[in-house]
Design goal:
This protein is mainly alpha-helical. It has a single domain, classed as Cytochrome c oxidase, subunit III, four-helix bundle (Four Helix Bundle (Hemerythrin (Met), subunit A), Up-down Bundle). The radius of gyration is 22 Å and the shape is elongated. The N and C termini lie far apart (about 75 Å).
Length: about 200
């Protein structure tokens, strides 16, 4: 019996999920930032409407078509980033690379539509506090998206290098967590800024 116990290999040491925990903290901090900014925006808008003022300045148009396209683009990207997590957990490298690439392409498409939306809205940044809040919130979200794209790209390169596999896919899971938070933040922005105006 003692010989059998010595012959069994030691159980593998479970590596702490440092990247996942760090990403969760960064995501929580980012979410707090957006909750604060949106609370200020909604409070200022409620004060203006309660006093009988017009919230949006004269000549400013906030269309809904472009934000709708942006929202559906991010929803599609949430599907592709989750596809990447599913694929890497099954060691399906081809689908992992394809889904990570599509996720980044969706991010670029979102940025393209956001820049077009900025040209349509024509907010004058120095003229009123509404424009400052709108640009702070939507610009902050664009920065969050660029960080998510860089994070996803780095995890794609790590997967190409063989550092991500079914046994160790914390990197792609962490990138997916941050990406999903990005989608949720924009869904709230979409409703608070573009739908309710």
């Amino acid at each position: 019996m003692a010989a059998l116990a010595r012959a069994l290999p030691a159980p593998p040491v479970q590596r702490p999920r440092v990247l996942m925990i760090g990403t969760a903290f960064a995501t929580a901090g980012t979410l707090m930032y957006f909750v604060t900014l949106l609370a200020v925006y909604l409070e200022r808008r409620a004060e203006a409407l309660a006093s009988g003022d017009v919230w949006l300045p004269e000549g400013v148009e906030v269309p809904l078509t472009q934000p709708n396209v942006m929202l559906f683009t991010l929803i599609a990207s949430a599907v592709t980033i989750q596809w990447a997590v599913w694929a890497i957990s099954r060691d399906d490298r081809l689908n992992t690379y394809l889904s990570l690439g599509l996720t980044i392409v969706f991010g670029v498409a979102f940025i393209n539509m956001a820049s077009y939306l900025y040209t349509i809205m024509q907010f004058d940044i120095g003229a009123n506090p509404q424009s400052v809040l709108v640009y702070a919130i939507t610009g902050g979200h664009l920065v969050m998206l660029v960080v998510a794209m860089i994070f996803t790209g780095l995890m794609a390169f790590r997967a190409l290098g063989g550092q991500q596999s079914s046994r160790q896919h914390d990197g792609i899971s962490a990138a997916a967590l941050f990406w999903h938070a990005n989608v949720v933040v924009f869904a709230v922005i979409w409703y608070a800024i573009y739908v309710t105006k």
